[in-house]
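Exam prep: given the inputs below (a chain plus zinc ion), describe the expected output before reading on.
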Amino acid sequence: MRKLKYLVLHCTATPEGREVTSDEIRAWHTGPVSKGGRGWKQVGYTDMIHLDGTVERLVDNNEDANVDNWEITNGVAGYNSVSRHVVYAGGVAKDGKTPKDTRTSEQLKAMEAYVKDFHKRFPDIRIVGHNQLAAKACPSFDVPKWLKSIGIKQ
Ligand SMILES: [Zn+2]
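Solution:
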């Protein structure tokens, strides 16, 4: 068990307007490599924010400031034992490849509520984008700038 250090924001890297189910995410991440999955033991994220703003819990979490082994998800290699990962459905344009902030107004509202609640409970834990920890486009928006715009200072 390690101390939680990061809340990492992600996108599913799916086209604008396309819904993603938890079963799909699980199949992409934990399905066997031979069948196109990544073969991971656990899905990549603790929570998923759907297009309509619904937050779905994918992996159990006891909401304390530690990362228990059973809470670990596979969002960013090298950081998972000290991170919680949350993902929104979307992140690329309709062409299926160009990174784009596709958050719907419902997703924006839900993500804002999510990070504000998290920040209130864990003011010392950094909230970052996947692209701040690895060379990725994910989550397709500037997380520090967005946090500032909703009044979170860290
Ligand atoms: Zn990511």
